Amino acid sequence: MRGRVIRMLYGIILPLSILSMVGSVTNATMVSQNFNLRALTLKASKVVEAKCISVSEDPSSPNLIYTFQVTRILKGKKRTSTVKVRIPGGHIGEYNLYVPGVTNAAPKVGENMLLFLGKWNGSYFPIGYWKGMKRVVKDRSGKDMVETEEGEWLPLSIVRSKVLKAVGETSQ
Fold first, then answer.
1. Helix (H) or strand (E) holding 112
2. Structural element, H or E, at residue 79
3. Which residue of 39, 67, 73, 91 has the fewest C-beta atoms within 10 A of its own C-beta?
4. What pLDDT score was predicted for residue 33?
5. How many whole angstroms separate alpha carbon 19 and alpha carbon 88?
6. Does the structure show a pLDDT above 80 at 11?
């Protein structure tokens, strides 16, 4: 009986505490804000073009750790060849954490992404969660395209120019 009560408490307390931690870390970047390219760029501490090379579970929390091979840094002082991004989802013990929108938007190994990253407690996370993860896909002619928040597809070169323009505004 005691074991059942403890499991039931963990079944309630653990998910709620996890969600409260996620909320406290990111309440400034939740979905209610308008995240156009300029806003994402200004809020991000790092913006990179990168390819997802691995996904692993964090053994200490229900988060997935995505490792990206950085191909271009558009914002951020530290030059690096890889970046690890923490995204909520996964499991710890017998408990699973599924965050609507985040889990579906998460990249698959081999996908190219444009990442708008915040930093908290030594870890990177996408700004606005899935809004800060933009897939780079090829159109029929082989040109790299990015879906913007406005729902339109733009060539990566144009998106890159808009991001660099916003970065230039912040450094003046």
1. strand 112-120
2. none
3. 91
4. 56
5. 9
6. no
Spatial contact of 87 and 113, defined as CB atoms under 8 Å apart: no
In whole angstroms, how large is the CA radius of gyration of the chain?
Answer: 18
Based on DSSP, count helices (H) and strands (E) in the chain, helices before strands. Answer: 4, 10
Q: Which amino acid is at 2?
A: R
Token output for 28: 């400034």
- Bridge partners (DSSP) listed for residue 145: 137, 155
* Residues above pLDDT 90, as percent of the chain: 43
Name the CA dihedral angle for 161, 78, 83, 104, rounded to a multiple of 10 degrees: -40
Would you say 63 and 89 are in contact if contact means Cβ atoms under 8 Å apart? Answer: yes
Take residue 109 and report the two structure tokens written for it: 């190994």
Query: What amino acid is encoded at 94 in this protein?
Result: E
pLDDT by residue (tens digit) across 61-101? 888 899 999 999 999 987 889 999 988 887 777 877 777 76
| Mean pLDDT confidence for 32-43 | 80
CA 11 to chain centre: 26
Residue 18 has pLDDT above 80, yes or no: no
Q: Which of 139, 149, 155, 117 is nearest to 35 (CA)?
A: 149
Alpha carbons 155 and 160: distance in angstroms, whole number:
9
